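Worked example 3 (structure in, sequence out).
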């Protein structure tokens, strides 16, 4: 009990110090992965990414709808069997699922399935037509799709949409239906980051657990790490929702284009590299 009180007191002192002096802590750099010249020669501008298997990453050019797999040595792999969907659709999310790789196509209202070598093996039509804006996946493989059209979050499991809303934003009476990011943690909780910087956390049963503002200008990304939620902006400033401590990303990796987490590591997508950070 005494140790717990002292720990809380110590964290409060740290928070006050950094708040007063306007300084921040830097994460420890674990790995720096520059992009190969092939990416620039192909005219690709990568704006989203996610972890894949074997310490690889999935990368996405949202303008060209081009999906890429890159291994630790910088070797690129491209998907096969996508057809015309890559031309007319709008990919908004990609990531690892129990059956392989999933890609969410907003305009075509489809979820594409690939194996881990990016060979296309299934395409599932989303009905009703949600036009999902955001997507996230739980540690159990349940996917969540936020539809601004319905002002609702639906769950996707066993190759079909659950027509019973996971979260009906209108019924929750949240002050805003503008959201910029969504993420899930190991317990199945789902966090929504609003455009105004408020974080809403829902349990795996869809019940709201937390609504808390974040003291950060122009928040854009939310990730979970251990039992904490971290909020990022494009300028490389990070806030811990648990402790209130502010962190910073090295200026060489700013502006931030996307952020993802895995285990005790954070990966940051910059214009010409991926930066992997360790968090103790």
């Amino acid at each position: 009990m005494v140790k717990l009180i002292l720990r809380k007191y110590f964290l409060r002192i740290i928070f006050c110090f950094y708040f007063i002096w306007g300084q921040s802590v830097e994460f420890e750099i674990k790995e720096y992965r520059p992009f190969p010249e092939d990416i620039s020669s192909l005219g690709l501008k990568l704006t989203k990414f996610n972890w894949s298997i074997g310490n690889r990453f999935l990368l996405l050019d949202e303008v060209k709808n081009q999906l890429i797999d890159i291994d630790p040595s910088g070797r690129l792999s491209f998907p096969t069997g996508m057809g015309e969907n890559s031309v007319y659709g709008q990919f908004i999310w990609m990531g690892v699922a129990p059956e392989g790789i999933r890609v969410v196509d907003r305009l075509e209202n489809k979820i594409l399935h690939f194996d881990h070598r990016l060979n296309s093996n299934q395409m599932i039509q989303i009905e009703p037509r949600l036009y999902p804006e955001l997507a996230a996946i739980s540690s159990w493989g349940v996917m969540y799709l936020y539809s601004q059209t319905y002002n609702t979050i639906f769950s996707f499991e066993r190759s079909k949409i659950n027509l019973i809303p996971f979260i009906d934003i209108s019924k929750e009476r949240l002050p805003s239906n503008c959201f910029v990011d969504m993420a899930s943690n190991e317990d199945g909780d789902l966090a929504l980051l609003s455009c105004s910087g408020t974080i809403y956390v829902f349990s795996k049963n869809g019940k709201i657990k937390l609504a808390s503002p974040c003291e950060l200008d122009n928040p854009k990304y939310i990730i979970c790490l251990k039992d904490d939620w971290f909020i990022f902006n494009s300028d490389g400033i990070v806030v811990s929702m648990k402790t209130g401590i502010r962190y910073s990303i090295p200026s060489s990796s700013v502006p931030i284009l996307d952020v993802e987490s895995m285990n005790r590591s954070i990966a940051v997508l910059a214009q010409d590299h991926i930066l992997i950070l360790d968090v103790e």
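Notes: The first helix runs from residue 2 to 21. Residues 1-22 have pLDDT under 50 and may be disordered.
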